[in-house]
Structure prediction request, 895 residues.
Amino acid sequence: MLTHLRKVVLLGGATLFAMTGRAGAAWDLNLPPPVSPIGQEILELHNLILLICLIIFFVVFGFMFYSIWAHRKSRGSTAAQFSHSNSLELVWTIIPFFILIGMAIPSTATLINMEDTSKADLTVKVTGYQWKWHYEYQKHGVGFYSTLSTPRAQIEGKAPKGEHYLLEVDNPLVLPTDRKVRFLFTANDVIHSWWVPKFGTKKDAIPGYINESWTLIEKPGTYRGQCTELCGKDHGFMPVVVEAKTPEEFDAWLTGQKSAAAKPDTAAAEWTNDRLMAEGGQVYSKCAGCHGVDGGGTPGGFPAIAGSSIVTGPVDRHIDVVMNGRSGTSMQAFKDQLTDVEVASVITYQRNAFGNDIGDAVLPSQISALR
Amino acid sequence: MATAEVASHEGHHHPTGIMRWLTTTNHKDIGTLYLCFSLTMFLIGGFMALVVRAELFQPGLQIVDPHFFNQMTTMHALIMVFGAIMPGFVGFANWMIPMMVGAPDMALPRLNNWSFWILPFAFTMLLSSLFVPGGGPAAGWTLYAPLTIQGGMSVDMTIFAIHMMGISSILGAINIIVTIFNMRAPGMSLMKMPLFVWTWLITAFLLIAVMPVLAGAVTMLLTDRHFGTAFFDPAGGGDPVMFQHIFWFFGHPEVYIMILPAFGIISEIIPTFSRKPLFGYTTMVLATACIAFLSFVVWAHHMFTVGMPLAGELFFMYSTMLIAVPTGVKVFNWVSTMWRGALTFETPMLFAVAVVFLFTIGGFSGLMLAITPADFQYHDTYFVVAHFHYVLFSGAAMAMMGGAYYWLPKWTGHMYDEKLGKIHFWLTTIFFNVTFFPQHFLGLAGMPRRIPDYALQFTEFNVISSLGAFGLGLSQLLFVYIIVKCVRSGVRATDEVWERPRGLEWTVPSPAPYHTFETPPKVI
Prediction:
């Protein structure tokens, strides 16, 4: 049995080595080392409960395996005929009860601490979208989307996978260390769940609800997690990345973001068809996840752009679908996610790429007029 | 004389061939139908699990696209829960309960026929939803709104299939309750019933209590999708979290619906091969009832992360932890039954011992999951996947395998191939652990469940898990072979089959004649 197991493990190990080409293998057996007080409390609680469970397990199955060894018929064991013992049964009903109380006390303390979101230094609103996160620094007027940045080629096996495969984003959430950060969670379409294992923070982001949680990061660094509530096709492709900076660095970063947000849009510039097409081709990467790189769509409710009646039909309807989405489907409203330039260029691109060749163009000014 | 009577019965009343099975009202025939159906679904659902594990063998997308991956995880669960485990136990109930309580048949034979024959239609509908535009249901077996609102017509087909399965389950449950309350042989008082009958009686009440709740939840989903209601849509004043509350009010008792009959089977097998009476029969019955009662007040532990008030979280943490007490009593009683027995380890006993051992691992991880602060880390990760497969595969499914080996000689009149049975046991147990034990580590390391692709640090354990899954899947073909072989041939089984087992089913000939206990036995 053991040799068999070992063989499987060895075979697996060999496959891995050949496959990933990495020198070291990750064989983590426990929760990752936490970087927040709550994470630490949970880890200690987890270790304690696990230890109690293991002790009970070995005691109970010690008896069972002793019995399997000693009370075999083949060893000449004859069956006793006792069938109950009130005192024994009472004892093993009551003892577990007290063990459970012993477990409940530290659990309750930790839970009360986890739910205490008061006296926060900073509040960040986290909104889940299919399939990206939006972060908003409340009272600072700074907000941005955070999307998976792993190239499709790596996912499809056409390029070697990077170190942070599937756990990397274009715009990470930047947070200060040593400050209590309160999170507000909600969602735009379906239920998502925001999780960073090293913080011990996981909370569902639910449309129509605002959930709260908090963390206090003790060490600067980059911390990674994922969406943990099934949210449709690309549920596995919406990671959470948090960059923790020292309070001074964080303040400087936030100020920089504020001034960047204040800059005027370059929408007023001259927009030629070629520029719109070039820009639109870039923006289209946000559509390609569902509608396909070649505009061919994806089986299972994600229609093709090529030859689509909406894309090749009247432009107003096309703009409406892109800006306001279609209720009851995964096609969300992109009005707030894309700038005027991005909406205009991607619509122009869709109408003229993939053999659609409608020949018309949408200008950023048309979009801003609709807002 | 009894034999002659049996023969004349069959000759006069019973059509042969396919019509026998379509029109049968005999509890043994219907039991066989249920068991064959369950085994078929087990293989189909298992095949889907292998699609999932094949995709997860390596990081990156190789075999299926993410949307189809979600359909496979969803269908795998729906088929295993509603197609393999639940009908499997109903099959055991049909075969064994009348024989165990000394009744000639189930109380409502025609209803029995109907409860079974609804199922093939329900699952044809569910399976065919894979081929409609947009593919099969892909929102997980929990069907959480609002994601299910987005799905295509397959969601509607799933909803109707669930309605049909629910009707089938409720009718089956009514039949079992009526049989147990009205058809017991003289002298068979409630507290003399075999534990398998007790666990099924309690399960049947759970089914009647919660299947309508699920029906209500999916009906609300249906009207949200098509008739303009907004039960679960916040934009219309609805509440997505309410779906989860309703679903898990069904879902948690459902967990015990899938495990209590397994406890019953184990409680039959262990005394036989320990050659001792079951230890603490009365507390076993009470513990079962206690688990059933608690199952109604713990549902929200499936959804600690939805943002409940602190008081709610504490209540559901404490009530969930309490379940460890009656469950512990059961495990202690099984071990005490073995204690100072004269143990032998034929295949059914091997399965029973493995179920006690492995189910308890699932029980302990369940206790860990009950600890709310820690659950925030485990929730929706592979730790949960490992947990419920320890409970449902090495609990429910392996108990059914043990039960099948235990009663096959009574059903077929032949002994199964003991050597092959043991090989099947060891392959199943080893590959099961290779598949699911590493998933605990994956979950703790941070791998969410229901993802088609994963970060590189999760690769090692996923490779092991996938290799184990293929071994586990292939081993079950051996199970099918052993059953077929046992039905067709084998050493003739004696009436008692095992060494002085307790229970009325061992007093009738092997194979059990078409009609048993037409004159009720006298139970002292």
